[in-house]
């Protein structure tokens, strides 16, 4: 059985591009949640700093995550964020509750 993949990303765009980035994220959320391997796909906006977004994703497998990265809707998001001057810090993470449950 494949191990789930957890992704947390912090994406920042200049405040003047926040609305455009939010629209691009919203479109990607709809399509990403339709992917077979998607277990969770939540994009949140920072209510205290315009232009900062946090993505929390859970994928059924590494292959499912890789398929997401290659999906047309994700490529459209990447292009839109690039136009907005986005900076991203993307992390593959392991929830500590999984480690604790395994003990």
Automatic annotation (TrEMBL):
Domain of life: Bacteria
One Pfam family in the UniProt entry: ABM
GO molecular function: catalytic activity
ABM domain sequence ranges: 5-93
PANTHER family: ABM DOMAIN-CONTAINING PROTEIN, QUINOL MONOOXYGENASE YGIN-RELATED
Protein name, entry field: ABM domain-containing protein
